[in-house]
Amino acid sequence: MIYAATAPSICLGLMQRYGAFNWDAWTNESFVKDDETKRLTYCGYLKFLSLDLADTYPIGLGRTKSAFKRGIEVIAKSMLKRGEVFVRAVKDRGAEGQGLNNILSQEWMPFHFDGMFKTQKHTRDDGSKYLVPNPPRFQYFAAVTPSPKNTGYTLWASSKLLLDLLPADKSLGYLQSLT
C-alpha cells in the first residue's frame, strides 16, 4: 500500500525533473519517425495494449474501433514518454572509467572481479588518464564445499583445506607470486 501511495508522486517528480517539455507538441508520426528504437517500442506498446485492454474497454456500443485505437495511442505515447524520463533519470553520467561496468562505486570488493574493482591507471599520449581492467591471475574463494574435480583451479574450500587441495604442480610460492 505504501508503494501505491508514493509511486505517483515519485513518478511526477521524475517527469518534472527529467521530462522533455516539447513532447506534447510532437505529432503521432514525428515523435517516432526518425528513431527506429522508439518506433519499434511504440508499435510494441500499441500491439500489447490493444490485446491487454480489449476486455477492459470492449469495442461496441459507446466505443468505436477508431476511438479504442486513439485511446491506445494516447496510452502508448505516455508509456514511451515515461520510459524516456526514467532512462534520463538513471543514465550513467559517470567518469570514463565507470564505463567498464554498470556499478558506479570505485570501491574494491574482496573476492570479486568483473572488470571494475581491480584496475590500473594508464596514461594516453596527450596526458589524459584512463582505467584498464587488471584481472587477477589467481583467486581464492571460501565456501562450504570444494569445486568438482577437473573443473579448473578456482578453489572453493575453507582456508584450512587450501594447502591440502592445491594441485601438485602449483606450489604456495607460485600462487603467492600471482596475487
UniProtKB/TrEMBL annotation:
Family matches, as InterPro entries: Isocyanide_synthase_DIT1 (IPR007817), TauD-like_sf (IPR042098)
Protein name: Uncharacterized protein
Biological source species: Cochliobolus heterostrophus (strain C5 / ATCC 48332 / race O) (Southern corn leaf blight fungus)
GO molecular function, one term: oxidoreductase activity
Keywords: Oxidoreductase
Pfam families in the record: DIT1_PvcA
